[in-house]
Amino acid sequence: MKKIDWISWGIFFLLCCIWGSSFKLMKDSTIGLSSDQIASLRIFSAGLIFVPFGLIYFSKIPTNKVGLVILSAAIGNLIPAYLFAEAMTKIDGSLGGILNSLTPICVIVIGILFFKITVQIEKIIGVVIGFLGLLLLILLPIFTGEKNIQFNNLGYSLLIILATFLYGINVNMVGKYFTEIHPIHLATVSLSFMTIPTGIILWNQKFLQLDFSNPILQTSISYTVFLGVFGSAIATALFYMLVKRASIIFASLVTYGIPFVALFLGFLDGEKITILKLSCLGIILFGVYLANKQGKK
């Protein structure tokens, strides 16, 4: 059983901050770019800054695992980026947050069914409790009448569910097959390969022919590149480090930390933090505690 040290918690917190802002960046990017352009530019930007490092570290990847590394990048970054970008143009952000929080549950279910991992019952209970706390926190504004959640285009929700399923597969792959590969080597090499398909897609979409003097387009591109560099490139490296240092379940629980970031940003904007909201956060923390409680030896 791996011990969750302060460095792991630090990486966990940093990932919560990075990914906690990703939904807003995706939404803001849609003012000037299509969903395919956002996804392509995001992953292309992430891979491009890693290309020099990828060339250096490619020799560090075992030859028999190069294919798996490319597959990991495709199902852990490339495909989910397109699924999320398309889904978020049609569904409510709150609903997207709820569906994204299915990731830890997918990690456990896929791990048990296909990767033969063993999970203590209290960890499963902890994940479920954390999800229920998160669900309640997101739905509170609907219950109190502060806002409405839109269920139009509900079919697009399946895209996010598919993305969380792919995340579940990738997290288990990283935990099982790449333990001997340094996280930085894995992240840089895998994302470097993704510049090829995304570059082709951007070229076919005539991205270079867009009017780059348009301020709206400039803003959208800035948001998307920022999302790629931090939300994909740096975050992927940090996430792989967290999987290696802690566990696949603990790493996947980052999605439960996103509402803490959202609540803090809301507080800075003048939103009230109520006892109910704090209670929901307490439920989430309790779930995270159970999911990471060290079992008896």
Task: Describe this entry's structure for a reader.
By secondary structure, the chain is mainly α. The chain has one domain. Helix 5 packs antiparallel against helix 7. The chain is globular and about 50 Å long. 44% of the residues are buried.
Strand residues, percent: under 5%
Number of strands: 0
Q: What shape does the CA trace take?
A: globular
N→C terminal distance: 9 Å
Unreliable residue runs: none
Order of helices and strands: HHHHHHHHHHHHHH
Radius of gyration: 19 Å
| Category from helices, strands and their pairing | mainly alpha
Total domain count: 1
What is the oligomer described by this structure? single chain
Biggest sheet details? none
Count every helix, treating DSSP H or I runs of 4 or more residues as helices. 14
* Helix content, binned percent: over 70%
Mean pLDDT: 87
